[in-house]
């Protein structure tokens, strides 16, 4: 199914890649800026810095007071936010098309002059905000630390994906203003970013505006490459069994997967979709509908570019059901898929679901801008938004089975279980224990 979203690209003299997709059918414009820095770029002792900057970027710059970034954009009807991930950080806003200049000016001011506002007081304030976020989202939330536990089991120590984006609070406590400034100067420059503009603006006007606001910013020295994280399937089963105050018993299995941008990763992702994708997935049919041993099941692939990706399968036990029954059923279905493969009907179903999800993502200017930045920054090819469905449609049932038999195996997994605390509950095996 060929797509034909218009794309035009220019690289400014300072190295900033600008991609424009004009859409005059809507009265809005989306601005999306991806920086090539995420948690995998953080060396030991500096974890959590990319996420810290997600907060600091909204606390003022040379010509913008703290809090004004949000207030100025919201005053003209914008929605805006930012996010940090293993492979990148992005900042984005969608607003009526007349606000394009304001959005670009604000993004350029913090790209070029953020450090004018990053002082000890600002750092201390945002460090406390990050700590509170960790308490709310990780420490005091049921199952909130599951991914932290899983990636520690899945990857060797100091692997680029062995820590979450929230980072270590000890690292943040030890950070001096000079450390924070040095991290920003290393990664936050025009030649380490992609700027995408989508919506109600002509290509010529969009490029002119990008040059006007960003063209004078100096390039930074070429950042060091992220460490290579290439690893194969996990060798063994590594468990972390937790007894805690949780609403239900839960199990999550995590598998290493192939690197993003490869047919093998697409095949592995479709294999997980066959198992856990929606109401028609094998696990939902068996565990939830037929045997009723699970309240819900979920799972899927998380594509990454640093040499390896990962995927998960999660089951929440029904009331009164021993979690071991859920684990045994998951193991059985994982091995059955690797041994017997999938049917052509199952493949067609998960491919159609993936196509629907992709088209929904591209249907909005904001979603389209984010995917353009994604593929321009991480793959050097924004036009992948127009060819992605064809790549997924090209995957065969044999490729799905081959990927599953190599990567998604019961004997090659990290696993965390949560069991409700009872009078008779006893803590399980130590984190990292191997079968």
What can be said about this structure in brief?
The protein is α+β, with helices and mostly antiparallel strands and 435 residues long. It is built from 15 helices and twelve strands. Helix 3 (100-113) packs parallel to helix 8 (203-214), helix 9 (263-276) packs across helix 15 (397-407) and helix 11 packs across helix 15.
Task: Walk me through the structure.
- This protein has 435 residues and is an alpha+beta fold.
- The protein is 42% helix and 20% strand.
- The protein is built from 15 helices and twelve strands.
- It is globular.
- Belongs to the peptidase M16 family.
- Residues 177-353 form the Peptidase M16 C-terminal domain.
- InterPro entries: Metalloenz_LuxS/M16 (IPR011249), Pept_M16_N (IPR011765), Peptidase_M16 (IPR050626), Peptidase_M16_C (IPR007863).
Walk me through the topology.
Blueprint: E1 8-11, E2 17-22, E3 28-35, H1 49-56, H2 68-75, E4 79-84, E5 89-96, H3 100-113, H4 120-139, H5 146-154, H6 169-174, H7 177-187, E6 193-199, H8 203-214, E7 236-244, E8 250-257, H9 263-276, H10 282-290, E9 294-302, E10 309-317, H11 323-340, H12 344-362, H13 365-379, H14 384-393, H15 397-407, E11 412-420, E12 433-434
Parallel strand pairs: 2-6, 7-11
Antiparallel strand pairs: 1-2, 3-5, 3-6, 4-5, 7-12, 8-10, 8-11, 9-10
Helix pairs in contact: 1-4, 3-8, 9-15, 11-15, 12-14
């Amino acid at each position: 199914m060929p797509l034909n979203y218009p794309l035009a690209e220019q690289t400014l003299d300072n190295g900033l890649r600008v991609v424009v997709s004009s859409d005059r059918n809507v009265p809005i414009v989306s601005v999306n800026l991806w920086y090539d820095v995420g948690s995998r770029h953080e060396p030991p002792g500096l974890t959590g810095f990319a996420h810290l900057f997600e907060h600091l970027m909204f606390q003022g710059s040379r010509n913008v007071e703290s809090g004004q970034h949000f207030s100025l954009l919201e005053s003209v009807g914008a929605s805006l936010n930012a996010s940090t991930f293993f492979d990148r950080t992005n900042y984005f806003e969608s607003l009526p098309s007349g606000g394009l200049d304001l959005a670009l000016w604000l993004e350029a001011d913090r790209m070029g002059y953020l450090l004018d506002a990053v002082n000890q007081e600002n750092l201390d304030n945002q460090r406390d905000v990050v700590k509170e976020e960790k308490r709310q989202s990780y420490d005091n939330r049921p199952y909130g630390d599951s991914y932290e536990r899983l990636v520690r089991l899945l990857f060797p120590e100091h692997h680029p994906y062995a820590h979450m984006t929230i980072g270590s609070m000890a690292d943040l406590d030890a950070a001096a203003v000079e450390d924070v400034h040095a991290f920003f100067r290393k990664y936050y420059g025009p030649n380490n970013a992609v700027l995408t503009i989508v919506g109600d603006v002509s290509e010529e006007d969009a490029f002119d505006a990008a040059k006007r606001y960003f063209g004078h910013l100096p390039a930074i020295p070429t950042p060091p490459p992220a460490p290579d994280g290439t690893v194969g399937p996990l060798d063994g089963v590594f468990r972390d069994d937790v007894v805690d105050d949780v609403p239900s018993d839960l199990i999550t299995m995590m598998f290493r997967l192939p690197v993003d941008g490869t047919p093998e990763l697409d095949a592995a992702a479709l294999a997980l979709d066959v198992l856990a994708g929606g109401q028609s997935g094998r696990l939902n049919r068996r565990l939830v509908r037929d045997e009723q041993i699970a309240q819900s099941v979920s799972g899927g692939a998380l594509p990454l570019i640093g040499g390896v990706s990962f995927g998960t399968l999660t089951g929440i036990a029904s009331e009164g059901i021993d979690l071991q029954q859920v684990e045994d059923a998951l193991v059985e279905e994982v091995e059955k898929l690797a041994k017997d493969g999938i049917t052509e009907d199952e493949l067609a179903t998960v491919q159609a679901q993936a196509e629907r999800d992709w088209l929904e993502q591209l249907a909005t200017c904001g979603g389209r801008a984010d995917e353009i930045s994604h593929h321009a920054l991480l793959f050097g090819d924004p036009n992948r938004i127009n060819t992605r469905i064809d790549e997924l449609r090209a995957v065969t049932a044999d490729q799905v089975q081959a990927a599953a038999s190599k990567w998604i195996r019961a004997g090659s997994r990290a696993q965390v279980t949560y069991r409700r605390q009872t009078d008779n509950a006893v803590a399980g095996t130590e984190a990292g224990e191997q079968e």
